[in-house]
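Limitations

Structures in this collection are predictions, not experimental determinations, and the ligand pose is part of the prediction. Treat each record accordingly. The example that follows, with S-adenosylmethionine as the small molecule, is included so readers can see exactly what is and is not provided: the inputs are given verbatim, and the output is the predicted complex.
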Amino acid sequence: MLPLFSLLLAFEAQTQESGDVGCVPSPTASAHVTATDLPEVLGNLQYNILKNTKMKCKHQPQVKELSWGVDLEKNFPKSLCQFDYIMAADVVYYHPFLEELLLTFHHLCNNEDEQTVAEIMRRRFSPAVVTNRPWEGFHFAGHEIKIIEATECYGAVVWPSALVLCHFLETNAKQYSLVDKSVIEIGAGTGLVSIVATLLGAHVTATDLPEVLGNLQYNILKNTKMKCKHQPQVKELSWGVDLEKNFPKSLCQFDYIMAADVVYYHPFLEELLLTFHHLCQDNTVILWAMRFRLDTKNQFMGRFQELFDLEVISNFPSLNIALYKAMRRGKKMT
Ligand SMILES: C[S@@+](CC[C@H](N)C(=O)[O-])C[C@H]1O[C@@H](n2cnc3c(N)ncnc32)[C@H](O)[C@@H]1O
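Predicted complex:
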């Protein structure tokens, strides 16, 4: 099959005077092409393109002004830049617009990371008026979710990793169906992930340190009551503490363990690992969103991989967040 691409950017004018051939898309290719250059060369470019493609191509090419770095968002809005290919021949030489050229490549290049991150961040909204209890709003799973925040501890705000995980759950609801699945969230904080998992049909147990549970319970109840199939539970789980007593291994039949932003500089990384290990059975899938904050010398990732097979399922370099799927070592991941 011929490659289908929606844009050719002929960045450089090749004029007849200079003896070059006009930059013309192959008439046999079935691409939608936009050829661009400085305004002064567009006449010749247009002439060559028309002459060589008219009645010979599937999609008539367009010719448009594009001066590198100039009015990019106005003339080529990023949201509309869905090009499969950007092409350029001999555009890098001694000229004073190399920085602008780079900017242009960057602007036109479909950046999945930026687009998905923008889409994720659009799910967040703030109250229109100042309220005495600060809250943040989110749109997930077809619901408006209001999260009351506190200020005094880590579990008191919604962290970006939670949004990444919620967006993943919502947009991958077919492959990772949560309907009637048993889910435990550790370090649930203000509860957004647990709420979204509940709204997507799961039996959820949201856990955290005792001091966070009041607010967590409030948010969960407020956002799920009468809206869910299975009413979620809130339980204390301090990593590594009384695991067998509070969560007997024989009763831990979780389909998913979820965690957002639980790995950072705190003194309980070993206990956190122990907790994952204790809760995870052969068929349990860990979905874990992590913001990279640890330095490279930290052993946590290595230690984690001694116990679990780990796979990156989404990566957002602009947020420094990756989403992982993990299972007990040697258990096949599908
Ligand atoms: C950075 S916050 C993330 C909160 C939430 N998952 C989110 O992404 O919005 C880390 C969470 O881990 C919890 N946490 C920290 N140390 C813990 C421990 N030793 N045992 C249980 N939870 C802990 C905190 O209370 C907090 O809710």
